[in-house]
Amino acid sequence: MALLAADGIDARYGDVRAVTGVSLSLAEGELLALVGANGAGKSTLLRVLAGAHRPFAGTVAFRGEDVTGLRDFERARRGIALVPEGRRLFASLTVRENLLVGAGSRRTGRWNVGSVTEALPMLAPLLDRNASQLSGGQQQAVAIGRALMSNPEVLLLDEVSLGLAPIVIDELYASLAAVRDGGLGVVLVEQDLDRTLAVADRIVCMLEGEPVLEGTPASLSREAITDAYFGHVAAPAGGGAGGPGTAGDDAGAGNGGAAWWS
Known about the structure:
Layout: E1 4-13, E2 16-26, E3 31-35, H1 42-50, E4 57-62, E5 65-66, H2 72-78, E6 80-83, H3 95-101, H4 113-119, H5 136-148, E7 154-158, H6 166-180, E8 185-189, H7 193-199, E9 202-207, E10 210-215, H8 222-229
Parallel strand pairs: 3-8, 3-9, 6-7, 7-8
Antiparallel strand pairs: 1-2, 1-4, 4-5, 9-10
């Protein structure tokens, strides 16, 4: 049984389709990366999985239980946590207070302020500083730490590296290895192909709301992924479901794939 599974997800904003007929699954301890250009529907799909956006059609299951009708805070109590693009911290609260907000789900487990600062060491000297005083990378670390404080079984990460300096991104990705210890499943939306290939167990490339390529980093060439990214594939490969569809939404996902060439 999959840890998290989506079946036939359609998501819309009014009459505009953002995601069309997407089915995917996540296993315990797996890191699944969603890649694709701006507008591919990656962030929308992540919000559907988290319960922050209700799908027009399709179902989401967690450990075999249909959670499609549950809202985001109800899914957090089940063990699904979202780190949204834009971080969305409480600027007037300290780092410690922002982390404690994440403990509101009242789930028990390995994550507390001490273990979070051990996994994300840049936070240790910042606990009493207001979130408004932090750099972008520090704020991203707080957002990840806040999600971990809910002791999730599934962590949904939207654009971890967006707008951050390379040295900060390196530190965050180094922390990701410690975060994954213990069987945590991760779905990562990312624009940087090199980092994605280095950390992902499986990659799904989306185009205009649909998956067009799927496989492991070892089974997919860089050329195949970039072709899929820009829509230069005639049919899905490696288990993808469906070809190019209608335009999707992907707020803040980057710009036209420029990061692929960095």
